[in-house]
Amino acid sequence: MNHNNIPWRIANSLLGLGSRPELMGIVNCTPDSFFDGGRHNSCDAAWEHALQLLEEGATILDIGGESSRPGAEMVSVEEEIQRVLPVIERLAQLQKERRFFISIDTVKASVASAAIAAGAQIVNDISMTRLDPDMAQLIAATGVSVVLNHMRGDPRSMQVAPHFDDVVAEVKAELLQAAHSLEALGVSSAKICLDPGIGFGKRFEDNYALIGRAREFHDLGYPLLFGMSRKSYIGRTPGLEQSDRLIPSVVSAVMVAQQGVCVLRVHDVAATREAMVMLGALGGNRQ
Fold first, then answer.
1. CB 45: neighbour CB atoms within 10 A?
2. Each residue of 21-53: pLDDT tens digit?
3. Global model pTM greater than 0.90
4. Structural domains of the chain, count
5. In Å, what is the CA distance from 21 to each residue of 9, 150, 188, 258, 287?
6. Is residue 77 included in any domain, yes or no?
7. Is residue 135 in some structural domain?
8. Cα dihedral angle (266, 183, 126, 86), rounded to 10 degrees?
């Protein structure tokens, strides 16, 4: 198999077989998102934003009702469900007319369960299913696809003195362990997508190592997702302290696209899509 094109099974579809990565657009239904400052935290605003991301070329919409920024406080299950469910229900209706996929960005099994019942096909769990003992079983029981995002600790603690001796080797090993745990419950490996977790309990240099060595994660045999959009490593890069982080985010996306990543999780779908089209036209995609 060409390891640069390991597809990801979602429902009855295989994603990632094309010449460029699929784009997962971010829809934050939170009042304290680090990037959009809660602009989309009403159902109508989130719905309009979701439609815009689809028009711009997103294949997947990642709906989140709890901020995962460093130091973020957790919200109640009820509050989180109240934020995301109306948007997911409306998007599920739209799926009858156009092809795209709905992802629920949560660490709580009860939120994921409600989202799946409303129409979500993917669970994006930033904790690799560690933070809720019921999450792995839910994923196995419902047959949804899953993103396992590497993180040690939780959003409140993850940036407190993170340490790695070899970040790529350690993140690979911990992601593989999480994937094998799901497979032991009966989850198909084809439905598991791995995310090295840029910015989740990583030092500045760790993020750069993971991005620069993205292709090494193909050794694990799973489709890969990278989420680097607008993250703080950009603002810590010398010379980019005042950046709005758009162009650096797109350049980061180009960097991992050239290394065969299956999915890019981004805020700026239109700009990233244009970069991917240009990269392909120049002959640089998914080598």
1. 16
2. 999 999 998 775 444 444 555 778 899 999 999
3. yes
4. 1
5. 14, 20, 22, 9, 12
6. yes
7. yes
8. 70
